[in-house]
Amino acid sequence: MKFTVTAIMATAALALGVSAAGAEEFPTRSVTIIVPYSPGSTDTMARTLAKEMSDELGQPVVVETRPGAGGTVGGAAVASADPDGYTLLFAVSSVQTVAPHQRDLPYGFDDLTPVARVAVGPNMIAARTGAPFSTIEELVAFAKENPGEVSYGSAGTGGATHIAAEAIARAAGIELFHIPFNGVTPAVASAVAGDVDLVLGFASAILPQDEGRKLVALAQLSEKRTSVAPDVPTLIEGGVDLALPPNTGLWAPAGTPDEVIATLSAAVEKAASSESFQNFTSSGLTAVDYADSEAFVEILKKEDAFFADLLPTLKLE
Q1: What is the DSSP string of 160-193?
Q2: Which residues pair with 243 in a beta bridge?
Q3: In terms of DSSP bridges, do strands 198-202 and 151-154 run parallel, antiparallel, or are they unpaired?
Q4: What are the tens digits of pLDDT across the range 154-170?
Q5: pLDDT tens, 252-273?
Q6: Bridging pattern class, strands 61-65 and 31-35
């Protein structure tokens, strides 16, 4: 059988047309977003985003909470899902960049594909009222003169706030005394009561206490001051060369087609700029900071390399 150039070109055009049509068809059914934490602020943020994404995608976007093991149960579920864009992860980036360096998991960094960054916390460090320091500079000076005497409360051993505090101590050249709690809320309560000198947590946990003069916000851990805390300096401004912004975003299983990722990322961008999502994040003291898939990949590669280097040096007991 002979094929003319015209026939070959027609066949190629048909194949391309089918491929394009297939790409345009996504999604044809509901999309599930897994939140790997217990119901709370992250879960509510995901549901707010999902409602707006549903309008953009023309299909239901449902949210399912699957907590456990610091977010890695849900992370593993998405990493092992079919790479078709119908099962996504909404989480803080530590699920991809920190947890795989801490213990053996059924997934690694390369098993999740970033779809888009949605927001940045930020995390903050605060002191009890009456502490002998009210700025990062004063904290560092005091801690150097009194090694191991400044205590801090974390949300639990090996968790994000524990890692952040030890990273601050390492960057500042000081030694802090760790007191773990079962969550941020009891750690903050202990600092408010004056039982620990320092506490770390999201702005939503710290700023209301700072405004009520029950804690003193020393610094935010972002690269630059965020809109939710414009009056609180960064660690870098305080002379500690460290930034640990908690990136909240969306992931898909590795191998998800590029065109599907692009469709999802565009839907996230529209949803994140919606009035309802902006209002929610503003009330929750979270800064919306959208980054598309390509930009988010680069952010997370740097974050992963940072923690791969940092974690082996930290005292996480």
Answers
A1: HHHHHHHHHHHHHT---EEEE-SSHHHHHHHHHT
A2: none
A3: parallel
A4: 988 888 889 999 999 99
A5: 999 999 999 999 999 999 999 9
A6: parallel
